[in-house]
Structures are given as C-alpha cells and as structure tokens.
Amino acid sequence: MGTLTTVGLAALTTLLVTLLSGLILEKLKNIKPKLILVVKAAIPITIENKYVGAYLVDVSNPSSKTIDDISISISAKTALIRNGGINATQGLEFSDEKKKKHFIIRIPFMKSHEKISITAIAEDSFYIPQKPEIVIRSPQVFKLIKKAKINKFSVQKLYLVPGVIGSLSVIIALIVILSFPSLNTTLTYAAERAELYDLVEIFATRTVQGFFPQGPLAYSKAKQSLNSNDIEKYKKFLMYIINSPSLMAPTSKCCLYFYLAKIELLQSETKEAIQHFDKAKNVCGFFFKQLIKNDNEVKSFLNKQILNK
User: Fold this and answer.
1) Listing from the earlier edge strand, what are the strands of the sheet with 67-75?
2) What whole-number distance in Å separates Cα of residue 190 and Cα of residue 245?
3) What residues contact residue 2 under an 8 Å CB cut-off, 6+ apart?
4) pLDDT tens digits, one per residue of 167-188
5) pLDDT of residue 167
6) Rounded Cα gap, residues 44 and 221, in angstroms
7) How far apart are CA 82 and CA 90, in angstroms?
8) 3-class DSSP state of 251
9) What is the spatial distance between Cα 300 and Cα 51, in angstroms, rounded to a whole number?
10) pTM over the 0.70 mark
C-alpha cells in the first residue's frame, strides 16, 4: 500500500512539474518585445525670420528578442521637418525617406540592445511644437515605452526664477536671456545648414564649451580637407554662427571672424578675407592683435596688403 502511495505521489509531482513548465514556457513565448522611445524636446528659436527647432529622438531595443521591419515616422504638425543626422549602433542597417511634412526611418531588424539616435530639424514661419509627433510601427507585436528628456533650462523653469528671487532686475535680465537661442541650439542649426552632419550629432547631444573654439575647429578641418566643397561647408558653418542672434562675447566673435578670413585665404578669396579681418579688428581690437601676434601667416598677408595700398 505504501509503495502504491509513493508511486502515485511521484507521478502526480511529475505531472504538476510538467504542467507548470509548459505554462511558464508559454508565458515566456507570449512576452512582448519592447522598444524604448526617448525624445528631447526642442526650444524654438528665430533665425532668418523663421522658427527653428532641433529634436533628438532615440529608439532602442532593451528586450532579448529581435524586432523586424521597424518604421519610425517623425513630423512636427504644420512645420517642415528634415533629417539632421543619424547615429546608430554599429551594424544596424537603416534608410531614410523624405515625405512632404515628415520623414521616415526604416530599419529591417533591430537586435537586442541596439539603438538609433535621430536629429530632426523643424522649420516654420509661425510655430514650432516643443515635441515632435512620432509613430513607430512593426508587423510584430511590441510594447512601446515612451520617455521624455526635457532640456535642463527649459522655458517653463526659467520663468519660475523671477518669482523665487523676487527682484525686478533679475526678471529683466532673464527676459533678455530668454530672447536668445542657446549655444547648443545655435551650433546644431549652423552645422545642419552647412551639411556638417557629424557635428550636428555632437552639438545636439553633448555640452559645448563655447563659441570661441568653433573658429579654430572649422579652420583646422578645412585646412586638412582636400575637397573644395568641404572647405566651403566649414566657411558657411562659421558664417551661420556669426549671423545668429545668439549672445556672444566680443572675443568669441572676433575669433570667428578671424578664422573665417583664414578659411577664405585657403580659397584664395583675398577681398573677402580682408573684409573679415577688418571686422575681427573692429569687434575686439586688443584680442585681434593677440591673434595676429601668434600667426605669422596672417601677419605676413596683412603687411603685404598695407604695402600694396
């Protein structure tokens, strides 16, 4: 009797284990893969009588399963929007397709822990929404997890500062500051307009030290390049920064004019180079002298111009 009871309990235990294993396996099979969407909101600025905004959109696959045939559609209501640069995990294949009011990124498959970062530039004469409209599709069933990455110094937070401080002078100062675009926004826009897409990704995602270093950066890149089209892009990059409505120290603007003129010398555009050296001198004379003091090439060029007059 005891033997039969033992055999029965063993059989029952085996049956229960088998059933539970089957249920757990079926549960694991039915778990939906996930995609995480992170959007960095834009602070619209006014440039050349247009509102301009730069969005950063990250899509990643944190699950263990591969998701096939992903399409990411990005739009900004009535604003025109275009691809400002894409960075992806090495090996991740993708293509982009421009439509009238939006553009689409297509990904044949996204493996576990792969990621794509998209910079989208929106322009409109009247209005730029703070956040873009994003639609992600796939023939597979998946769960989309949305996260918002808000700029640290958003317009809403800045408007709270005067109330906390309670000083009229601070209120006025904040209003003036808010009327100008941020450093990263200006540099991202300038790089995108100049078609320097490697710089777009850097300026959109990293903290930049200031306007001043952009002059030496653009000149060194232009000097290293043997392609006249690339040299022209770095020239346009500096011109967009100089002509932006951003708050800029006189020494920074002087530096940008100085290196813009040096790029024009690379292009043999002597007349334009002289004009921009003059502007650098007018913006900040004492700093211009320091720049020339350490640059024998420019010093020699300007001395020749004086002798030829």
Assistant:
1) 95-98, 102-110, 67-75, 133-137
2) 12
3) none
4) 444 443 333 333 445 777 888 8
5) 45
6) 29
7) 23
8) helix
9) 43
10) no
